[in-house]
Design goal:
Structural class: alpha+beta
CATH class of the largest domain: Mainly Beta
Number of helices: 7
Shape: rod-shaped
Radius of gyration: 44 Å
Number of strands: 12
Order of helices and strands: HEEEEEEEEEEEEHHHHHH
Helix content: 40-55%
Distance between the termini: 55 Å
CATH superfamily of the largest domain: Neurotransmitter-gated ion-channel ligand-binding domain
């Protein structure tokens, strides 16, 4: 084994000495036309996607293959050795840069990176890079959105008459993965050209197809929003017997509006500042409008009930029939019932003018007692009548409460169903314009 290793090292040294004699890596390897570079991506790992900054960070690795006829040897002269590995800085390398990146750095330096040379002049290099590139976020379907983020490479100087790049789709054994929030389900390669100062240059796009994982937003924002709105509507339109509970309903609705406004602020903080309102934002706005209208209706009911109760006006029979309610029975007044018990006979009236002071005092006291009793009965009847009016209007508004409770809960469920329906829509097609 040691002998074979020494022989192999000697043959490799001989090959390198022969093929690199007079070799100049600064000169392009022209072969009857432009240099043809075949390249594709074999590794893609999404590190993070910052929506509000519209930046995506990846670790990628792409391969490049081309021919250099100056680096050809006959394997039969070197004990059948058909390939060698040399440092990258020994040969000419196609120069492509990521022009839509905020930060790009090679994970291997020129001294540590190697290339593989084949006996027929073919060269292969694998370039691992960390890239932080611009990604134009489309937030209309958030949190069920699908993003297309590209890593765009271009030649800084060589035109198509000097170098042609043939970009192919990734092989089946390539490795691509997303992160905790994004699922990377596909990577496509797009070959393009662009014009600059009358010259055509190559441009390659590695397009990452990203699908957001929406479970976090559904459990943290959507579910609490729906529960808060459903319970708020239930509390606002739950029937009450007087004004006290209705005042509490208005306070409950206002508190729910405040809570949903906070949730909307959380969504706005995660999204880029643009004219596009995300789907989740529309849903929260619709729920806020529903709760606001519910609070307005409850306040209107409160004002109307107070108005009629203060006027001591009973609901009309037509209104009761319209609401399918039984008509109330008028309560007979008891203020003058049994008044004859306190009416004195003519004899008592005559005694009032009697000269006996004790009799006059007794008659006056009895008359005062009778007046006091009549006043108390009058107040009791007024109080009972007011309670009757409150109870009748409470019956009327209870029917309104049940009606609006069904209507608003149905609208709330409909808004949630329309929102969740987007999750089952097909994945959008790849756009022509990515950058």
């Amino acid at each position: 084994m040691l002998l074979n290793s020494l022989i192999l090292d000697n043959e490799t040294s001989a090959i390198l000495n022969d093929i690199f004699h007079g070799y100049d890596k600064r000169v392009l390897p022209f072969v009857q036309g432009p240099v043809l570079v075949n390249m594709t991506i074999v590794l893609g790992i999404l590190i993070e996607l910052k929506e509000n900054q519209q930046l995506a960070a990846y670790v990628i690795s792409h391969t490049q293959r081309w021919y250099d006829n100056r680096l050809i040897w006959d394997p039969s002269k070197y004990r059948g050795q058909r390939e060698v590995i040399v440092p990258q800085n020994m040969v000419w390398i196609p120069k492509l840069f990521v022009y839509n990146s905020l930060e790009s750095k090679d994970m291997l330096t020129e001294n540590r990176a190697d290339v593989r040379l084949y006996h027929n002049g073919r060269i292969k290099i694998n370039i691992p890079q960390y890239v932080q590139a611009i990604c134009r976020i489309q937030t209309q379907a958030f949190p069920f959105d699908c993003q297309f983020c590209a890593v765009a490479l271009a030649s800084p100087l060589l035109n198509v008459e000097e170098m042609i790049v043939n970009a192919t789709q990734p092989p089946r054994d390539s490795y691509f993965t997303g992160n905790a929030e994004w699922f990377l389900f596909n990577v496509t390669v797009r070959h393009m050209t662009f014009e600059e100062e009358g010259e055509s240059r190559v441009e390659i796009h590695y397009i990452f197809h990203l699908q957001r994982r929406p479970i976090y937003y559904i459990t943290v924002i959507v579910a609490p929003t729906f529960l808060i709105s459903a319970l708020s509507i239930l509390g606002i339109f739950s029937p009450g017997s007087n004004d006290g509970p209705r005042n509490e309903k208005v306070s409950l609705g206002l508190g729910s509006l405040l809570a949903m406004t906070v949730l909307l602020g959380i969504v706005a903080g995660a999204m880029p500042k643009s004219n596009d309102i995300p789907l989740l934002g529309y849903y929260i706005l619709v729920v806020i409008v529903l709760c606001a209208v519910a609070v307005g209706i409850s306040m209107a009911f409160l004002a109307v009930s107070r108005h009629y109760i203060q006027k001591e006006q009973m609901p009309s029979k037509r209104l009761l029939r319209f609401m399918f309610l039984n008509e109330y029975r008028k309560r007979r007044s008891t203020v003058f019932r049994g008044v004859h018990n306190y009416r004195f006979s003519q004899e008592c009236d005559d005694l009032m003018y009697s000269k006996v002071p004790e009799i006059q005092s007794i008659c006056m006291m009895m008359e005062e007692i009778a007046d006091s009793h009549r006043s108390m009965r009058r107040k009791a009847d007024m109080k009972a009548n007011k309670k009757l009016i409150e109870r009748e209007w409470a019956r009327v508004f209870a029917r309104f409460d049940y009606f609006f409770l069904v209507v608003f809960e149905t609208l709330n469920l409909s808004a949630l169903a329309v929102f969740l329906r987007v999750a089952w829509l097909p994945t959008p097609e790849l756009r022509d314009q990515i950058l």
